Amino acid sequence: MFAVSNLLSAAAQVLDMALTAYYWIIIVRALISWVSPDPFNPIVQFLQTVTEPVLAPIRRILPPMFRFGIDISPVIAIFLVIFLKSFLVRTLFDLSLRLRL
């Protein structure tokens, strides 16, 4: 069972790093949106391509009373990433530890 335990532990580490990178990508996108970026810049296009699949559904779900000129979907997405890091990654680590015993 140690092989499955090591696999889950490695998956948890990779997921943790991916979620951390996505966390920073969302923050950078939110900061760049404040300065009117060039839409043809490859970095801006990358940030929009990577974050829009998560931010667009959040914007659609938000009730109209939360749409007051400021886009709060990045804040909600950051909370979701933090939740996934604290729940899913920890669960995978704990599961890998239990399999090792």
TrEMBL record:
Highest taxon of source: Bacteria
Keyword entries, A-Z: Membrane, Transmembrane, Transmembrane helix
One Pfam family cited in the UniProt record for this chain: CCB3_YggT
Gene Ontology cellular-component terms listed: membrane
Transmembrane segments: 7-32, 72-93
Family assignment from sequence similarity: Belongs to the YggT family.
Record protein name field: YggT family protein
Organism from which the protein derives: Velamenicoccus archaeovorus
